[in-house]
Amino acid sequence: MTAAGAGLGAACAAAGAGVLAAAPDAQQPLAVALGAIALAYALREQGWLPLPVPGRDWQVPASWVRHGFYRSAAIFGATVGFGVFTRIPYASLPILLASLVVLGNVPLGIAAGTLYGLMRALSIYSSMNSNEVEQLVRLNQRLIALTPAAHQITGIALAVLGAYLVTAPYLQR
Amino acid sequence: MMIGHLHLGETRRGLLLAAGLLAGFAVALSTVGLSWQTGAAGLGLGLAALAGLAQTCSA
Predict the structure, then answer these.
(1) What is the DSSP secondary-structure string of A36-49?
(2) Which residues of B touch A169 (CB under 8 A)?
(3) Using the beta-carbon criterion (under 8 Å), do B40 and A99 form an inter-chain contact?
(4) A123 → closest Cβ in B34, B35, B59
(5) Are A41 and A91 in contact (CB under 8 A)?
(6) By C-alpha distance, which of A116, A93, A85, A99 is closest to A16?
(7) CB atoms within 10 A of CB A101
(8) ipTM attached to this prediction
(9) In the prediction, which pLDDT does A173 show?
(10) Residue contact A99–B59, C-beta within 8 A
(11) Are A115 and B45 an interchain contact pair (Cβ–Cβ within 8 Å)?
(12) Which of A116, A140, A151, A154 is best to mutate for the B interface (most B CBs within 10 A)?
């Protein structure tokens, strides 16, 4: 899952580096436009603006994870770790990927993707000591109960990034 | 009561969002002299951690 996150971050940053190599003057207007989009999605995460989050309602098929523990874990982790193949309930992931494209910095893409993947896998780490189904269900319920707070916190983070991106490129060179 | 709670929640969220906007402007002002990409990279790493944490709450 973490490796998939790093791969996705690197791919987005490499794509951005390619675009910026062809059109270096595009970076600043793209950053400002992304800042405005991040601000709109900050309102969406607070429940004040009904914007769709790009993504797809797809789940890893059960038949893909019936091939032994390690192989199944690798397939599941790699698919879910990319983040973009399965449901994306939060706007923070697409905005993050777009910012990696705009910045076009591959080491940053790898670092941000790795960080995303590590945090994304926290539910798996925290379930490692749970041997009973009931414990896993309770853990899942506790995580799902945090969903509204997660929307609000990531919304604030989008507001910080959005305000920065619409301002900083004009203040700094 | 419910309306009161909803109103308080909305107000609190509004204040937190305004604080987020101010923080973004403050970071932009405090990093004048650096390239704007450097500040964006730092904020991007923070967003990456929060995006992963949030996404883990969805499964």
Answers:
(1) HHHHHHHHHHTTSS
(2) 36
(3) yes
(4) B59
(5) yes
(6) A99
(7) 20
(8) 0.87
(9) 58
(10) no
(11) yes
(12) A116
The two tokens of residue A59 are 């789940």
**Other residues' Cβ atoms within 10 Å of the Cβ of residue A164:** 28
DSSP secondary-structure letter at B32? B
| pLDDT at residue B1, as a whole number | 37
Report residue A162 CA to chain centroid gap. 16
What percent of chain A shows pLDDT beyond 70? 97
pTM: 0.87
Q: Which residue has the higher pLDDT, B56 or A1?
A: B56
Q: For residue A121, give the 3-state DSSP assignment.
A: coil
From the number of C-beta atoms within 10 Å of its C-beta (0-12, 13-18, 19+), residue A147 rates as: middle
Q: Which long-range contacts (CB under 8 A, 24 or more apart) does A19-28 make?
A: A19/A101, A19/A104, A20/A104, A27/A102, A27/A104, A28/A169
Quote the tokens at residue A101.
């494209």
**Where are chain A's structural domains?**
2-171
Q: Which residue of B has its CA nearest to A173?
A: B35
Cα separation of A16 and A103, whole Å? Answer: 7
Amino acid at site A149:
A
Contact B20 A156 (CB under 8 A): yes
Question: What's B18's DSSP letter?
Answer: H
Instruction: Kindly state the tokens that stand for A20.
Output: 């910026």
pLDDT tens-digit series, residues B8-56: 588 888 999 999 999 999 999 998 888 999 999 999 999 999 999 998 8
